[in-house]
Amino acid sequence: MTSINMSNNNEQKIIDIVKSQHDFFKSSSTFSYEFRIEQLKKLKAAIRKHEDEFIRAFKIDLGKSEFESYLTETGFVLLDLSDTIKNLKKWMKPKRVKTPLIMWPATSKKLYSPLGVNLIISPFNYPFGLTFAPLIAAIAAGNTAVIKTSELTPNVSLIIKNIVDETFESDYVAYIEGEIPETTLLLEQKFNHIFFTGSPRVGSIVMSAAAKKLTPVTLELGGKSPCVVDKDANLDIAVKRIVYGKFMNAGQTCVAPDFVMVHKSIKEKFLGKLKQRIIEIYGEDASLSDDYGRIVSKHHHARLIELIDQDKVVVGGYSDKASKFIAPTVMTGIVPGDEVMQDEIFGPILPVLEYENIEDAFEVISELSQHPLAGYIFSESKIIQEKFISNLQFGGGCVNHCLQHLGNFNLPFGGVGDSGIGSYHGLAGFECFSHTKSIFKPVTWFDHFSLLYPPYKKYKLDIVKWLLK
Ligand code: NAD
Question: Which of the listed CATH numbers 3.40.50.10300, 3.40.309.10, 3.40.120.10, 3.40.630.30 matches domain 226-414?
Answer without folding.
Answer: 3.40.309.10
